[in-house]
Design goal:
Elements: E1 2-11, E2 14-19, E3 32-33, E4 35-38, H1 45-57, E5 60-74, E6 80-91, E7 101-106, H2 117-127, E8 133-140, E9 143-149, E10 152-153
Parallel strand pairs: 1-6, 5-8
Antiparallel strand pairs: 1-2, 1-4, 2-3, 2-7, 5-6, 8-9, 9-10
Length: about 160
């Protein structure tokens, strides 16, 4: 079981996205995702997202919001509990990311990028400012076979 965080830094009608192209054997290879990563011992979700954002972008979040919990179940990877955040402000100077290429992408263009199918569901929830939610996604390989939002089946 894994606990992780993911954050979408928001600038007007854009999100800061990470194109995962630099690491070998990356389960997210060639996908576009937000920034974040796995918890370290003793970290809260907030501790983790602050550290991971700083490590991957060089930026320190100053205004961020915990938006939801996404449970990933896979036939290939351990179950992962991903704590989802958005951020509206930060300080610092961007750095090059060792895990991929960072780029500001218009929200309207996101769904045309290579994304996990389940990411499209929670990106829509973020876009509509849905209150805190719990989303369970089950994959067989890269195919999304189940999506349950707040206990109600979507797929």
């Amino acid at each position: 079981m894994i606990n992780s965080t993911l954050c979408y830094l928001e600038r007007g009608d854009e999100y800061l996205m990470l194109h995962r192209v630099k690491k070998a054997h990356d389960m997210n290879h060639d996908k576009w995702i937000g920034v974040g990563g796995k918890f370290e011992e003793g970290e809260s979700p907030e501790d983790c997202i602050l550290r991971e954002t700083r490590e991957e972008t060089g930026l320190t979040l100053t205004d961020y919001r915990y938006r939801g919990l996404v449970t990933f179940v896979s036939d290939q990877y351990p179950t992962e509990y991903m704590h989802l955040f958005t951020a509206a402000s930060w300080t610092g100077t961007p750095i090059e990311c060792g895990e991929g290429e960072l780029a500001w992408i218009k929200k309207a263009d996101l769904l045309s990028l290579p994304l996990w199918e389940g990411d499209k569901i929670f990106l829509r929830l973020l876009d509509t400012d849905t209150p805190f939610f719990s989303l369970k996604l089950r994959y067989e390989g890269e195919k999304l076979v189940l999506a349950v939002l707040d206990g109600r089946r979507l797929l």
